[in-house]
Specification:
The chain has 345 residues and is of the alpha+beta class. The chain contains five helices and 21 strands. The protein folds into two domains: 171 residues, no CATH class; 110 residues, Cyclophilin. Helix content is 16%, strand content 34%. Helix 1 runs parallel beside helix 4.
Amino acid sequence: MSGPTSSGPTSSTATLHVERAGALTTLQDAGRPGLLRFGFPASGPMDRFAHAAANVAVGRPSGSTAIEVSLGGIALRCADAPLTVAVCGGGFAVTCAGERRTAWSVCTLLPGDTLTVAAGPWGSWCYVAVAGDLVAHRWMGSTATHVRSGLGGGVLRAGDVIVVEHARADDARDGAIDEPADLRPAGPMRVVLGPQLDRFAPDAAATLLGAPYVLTAAYDRMGVRLDGPRPALVDALAIPSAPIVRGSLQVDGDGLPTLLLSDHQTTGGYPVIATLVADDVDRVVQSRAGDEVRFVAVEPADAVREARLRAARRAQQLDAVAHRPGAHSARLLATNLIDGVFHDE
């Protein structure tokens, strides 16, 4: 079968055969918000911006279903028809049809080609989006996978076959993507103190903010347990269950906080000392076990204002990814199109 050309994208049905998949490799769309009051977790991507960027890089809506890849990596073999794919997220090692690519990139797979994504120098999660409609089971209107229950699109394992309808091979999109500079888990993470600060000793907030914490190996899509200073509790373990949101820092009986993430429970009986600003949750999840994280407190009004500013900035960044110029031209310039030397005789 001949490869795609720049004359325009082709469309058909493609399949991706999962040759290898690390733990917690799942199908995720943007999640199912608004259902926590009914006991349904939102799930969705761990790094929401990277998920959205991978989708728009191949011309898909930002909330479309994509493959979330953990540190265990993935290997996907293309079959049946050519397919353009994008990879965005942490600094993973990406190989497309035997060619090394940057961690943020778009490439076109021909039948028989393999896309390999493996752990690189930084980051814990990345996303593989496809130029087409990825077929996946829906639960409560969403393909977002809740790992512990198995509901949603599902966990991927070696031997699985992923069907992509209306698959497009659009090599005009091929090339590196400029990774925004502010996505890495560097610097202090902003928190709003509370809502149950009254269940802690008076110096608990200073304890939380005064020294770094280390991410432990107790890390999955539900949350990550931290090791470090222990904010002192005051008669806090008999409180009634209360709603929990993504980014909550929940402290249990041993005094160590747990940062709750995409598959978090809907209610909890342990007090929450602080809640991370949403954009910083996307950054901190790219840390690995053994990495340090520090917290800095901001006022609620400042957090709301910053969230609006960041949302506008992220929208601009997604627009830049979706309409990045010269990907095809850059690839042509890197290719030796003329072999040999011509002489005018």
